[in-house]
């Protein structure tokens, strides 16, 4: 792939605001020559790539703006694959603005958001999935989201898909060749091999498609709901988890009427906790709204904590609750509260009834809270994809194209079974190719690129 050097652009690459140092990045055709015009020190135009040089940046009248370190990167050995100079200056807003002004006076344009990454993409530094991972990496605020972004940046799933797409392209060419022969009954594309290839591709797609729910949760937090009867201790548990008095605790059943959302980080995973009004049958207007919302929140939740008062729960009610949790199809944890009031016999009795593990806590006494936290993070981590650090899809655009490809291939496979004519087959395969190509960025439109890269911050 040939490298294109576009007009020179510049932007602050570090976070705006006051800091010990700030880094400005200049990239594009003539980046080194133009920076050299405002730099006093060594002649940057003759310096080797990847070398740093001390000097000053001057106003046109010769007065010093700042002492800086200029690092030279010669294309294609740079982030954008263009010529790049990184200017490390003192982190003052005034100095940064003055240097940018000097650069623009020399004909450098201020960069748009994401423009550096866009150029890197256009010069083949990485594919679109990886480019988007750069944005996610910058935005990552938990250990797990950081890991997911990093895996994608390193090539993630797109490399494998690119190879399979190439094989599919070869098949489409053969199928389309059959079309040229019209009425003659020829088959250039071996149907068995095509069937196998489509199967192979779908095998790669499925875990990625399935990883989206967990991937999305990692990026945005795992929506977790605490449900249980009034007075089970839900508010007390929420407080214990969040370690502060966020919810209203009272002895009157059903007083936690408002839903309180809060976040909790456990082992690098973000949980969005949702407190609810309880699962009790509605007895009044306010409570009815609360219960409706509880059921809605259970639908929205990715993880359910079922909390019960171990002192007073009837074994039969515990069994009913367990089957309700199972019906919901969501991962859940059974949590027995008020351990401090229990006899060992009672605990054993409930365990026998439940026939599955119960996490025992005393919310009021903050006992067992760490065990519960561990159990929560384990529920999320048991997803193999997260555990092994393999690719996890966190991006809705990727998800859309992955499912689009899968649907088209499923349709093509069905067609193959039914013995459809080559033109029908080619149509489905074309749709699959279009999705795969848009996913990795081999097929792009300017609108798509603009919308993706505009989500970046300036300087990236
Ligand atoms: P909610 O209706 O489910 O939100 O329940 P609350 O959190 O308001 O608690 C109901 C009552 O149970 C309050 O009086 C709490 O003090 C009490 N409670 C909560 N956790 C415990 C516990 O671990 N042990 C004991 N003995 N009481 C608790």
From TrEMBL:
SUPFAM superfamilies: P-loop containing nucleoside triphosphate hydrolases, TrmE connector domain. GO terms for cellular component: cytosol. It holds the Pfam family MnmE_helical. Its main location: cytoplasm. Its EC number is 3.6.-.-. K(+) binds at residues 231, 250, 252, 255. It is found in: Cytoplasm. Gene3D superfamilies: P-loop containing nucleotide triphosphate hydrolases, Probable tRNA modification gtpase trme, domain 1, tRNA modification GTPase MnmE domain 2. GTP binds at residues 231-236, 250-256, 275-278. The keyword Magnesium applies. It is an enzyme of class 3 (hydrolase). It comes from the Bacteria. Residues 221-381 form the TrmE-type G domain. Its cofactor is K(+). Binds 1 potassium ion per subunit. One of its GO terms (biological process) is tRNA methylation. Coiled coil: none annotated. One of its GO terms (molecular function) is identical protein binding. Exhibits a very high intrinsic GTPase hydrolysis rate. Involved in the addition of a carboxymethylaminomethyl (cmnm) group at the wobble position (U34) of certain tRNAs, forming tRNA-cmnm(5)s(2)U34. Homodimer. Heterotetramer of two MnmE and two MnmG subunits. Belongs to the TRAFAC class TrmE-Era-EngA-EngB-Septin-like GTPase superfamily. TrmE GTPase family. This is tRNA modification GTPase MnmE. It comes from Spirosoma profusum.
């Amino acid at each position: 792939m040939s490298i294109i050097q576009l007009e020179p652009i510049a932007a602050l690459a570090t976070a705006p605001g006051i800091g010990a140092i700030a880094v400005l990045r200049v990239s594009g055709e003539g980046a080194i020559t133009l920076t050299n015009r405002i730099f006093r020190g060594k002649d940057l135009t003759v310096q080797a790539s990847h070398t740093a040089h001390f000097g000053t940046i001057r106003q046109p009248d010769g007065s010093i703006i700042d002492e800086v370190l200029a690092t030279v990167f010669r294309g294609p050995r740079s982030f954008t694959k263009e010529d790049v100079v990184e200017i490390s200056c003192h982190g003052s807003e005034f100095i940064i603005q003055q240097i940018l002004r000097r650069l623009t006076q020399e004909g450098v344009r201020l960069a748009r958001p994401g423009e550096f990454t866009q150029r890197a993409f256009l010069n083949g530094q990485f594919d679109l999935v990886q480019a988007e991972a750069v944005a996610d990496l910058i935005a990552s605020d938990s250990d797990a989201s950081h890991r997911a972004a990093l895996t994608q940046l390193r090539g993630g799933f797109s490399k494998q898909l690119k190879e399979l797409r190439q094989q599919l392209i070869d098949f489409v060419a053969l199928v389309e060749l059959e079309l040229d022969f019209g009425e003659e009954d020829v088959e250039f594309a071996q149907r068995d091999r095509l069937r196998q290839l489509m199967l192979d591709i779908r095998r790669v797609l499925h875990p990625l498609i399935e990883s989206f729910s967990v991937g999305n949760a990692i990026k945005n937090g795992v929506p977790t709901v605490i449900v249980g009867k009034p007075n089970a201790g839900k508010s007390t548990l929420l407080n214990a988890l969040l370690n502060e008095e966020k919810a209203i605790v009272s002895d009157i059943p059903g007083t936690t009427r408002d839903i309180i959302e809060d976040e909790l980080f456990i082992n690098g995973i973000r949980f969005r906790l949702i407190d609810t009004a309880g699962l009790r049958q509605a007895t009044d207007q306010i409570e009815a709204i609360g219960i409706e919302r509880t059921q809605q929140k259970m639908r929205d939740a990715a993880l359910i904590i079922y909390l019960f008062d171990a002192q007073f729960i009837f074994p039969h009610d515990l069994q009913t609750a367990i089957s309700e949790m199972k019906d919901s199809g969501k991962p859940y944890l059974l949590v027995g509260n008020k351990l401090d009031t229990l006899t060992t016999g009672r605990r054993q009795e409930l365990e026998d009834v439940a026939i599955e593990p119960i996490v025992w806590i005393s919310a009021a006494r903050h006992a067992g809270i760490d065990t519960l936290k561990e159990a929560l993070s384990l529920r999320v981590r048991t997803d193999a994809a997260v555990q092994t650090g393999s690719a996890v899809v966190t991006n809705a655009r990727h998800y859309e194209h992955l499912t689009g490809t899968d649907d088209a291939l499923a349709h093509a496979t069905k067609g193959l079974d039914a013995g459809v004519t080559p033109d029908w087959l080619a149509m489905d395969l074309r749709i699959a190719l279009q999705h795969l190509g848009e996913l990795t960025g081999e097929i792009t439109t300017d609108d798509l690129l603009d919308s993706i890269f505009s989500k970046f911050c300036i300087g990236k």
